[in-house]
Amino acid sequence: MERRNKEIVFLQGGLGNQMFQYAFYLAKKHTNMDAVYDTGLLRLYRQHNGYELEHLFDITSKVSLINLLLLWLLKKKKFISKVLKPWMSLLTDSIPSMFVPSYLNLHKGLTFYYGYWQTEKYFFDVKDEINPLSIPYCKKLFMIINKYILPTIRNKNARKNLKYVKILRIIHGN
Question: Which has more pLDDT, 133 or 140?
Fold first, then answer.
């Protein structure tokens, strides 16, 4: 029986980091249809504003407690990590991010990706899929601006802030 190769990209940090990690996941998805992303670390550590891609881009949250447990075992327990090594591996990104071309290749067994992946070289081939200026993203962005920023602009104190007024003029074209 052939063993499936499953790759899991963990999302963590703030919105910018989550966008880089999701783009890396999309690049992995091109080489392995079994690639998935996991937002469990964001739920566990409650970093920044939590999982933001769902609110901004309608990308649903995916959490697996088993993935979190296996990641913890690979990171913290050296003995268990050595026992599991034939079946699973943990690939981490350096700080600052350095492009490692082999990370885009298909890896055998269960592979966890833990890091920020902050170089466009990882997702150059999927740039059209992640373009934030595509129409659905712009509509969502303007909806968020109208919901959260415009009420602040309407506030008398905010009118004194010229940056908000300039944003309002750009949005409404006047």
Answer: 140
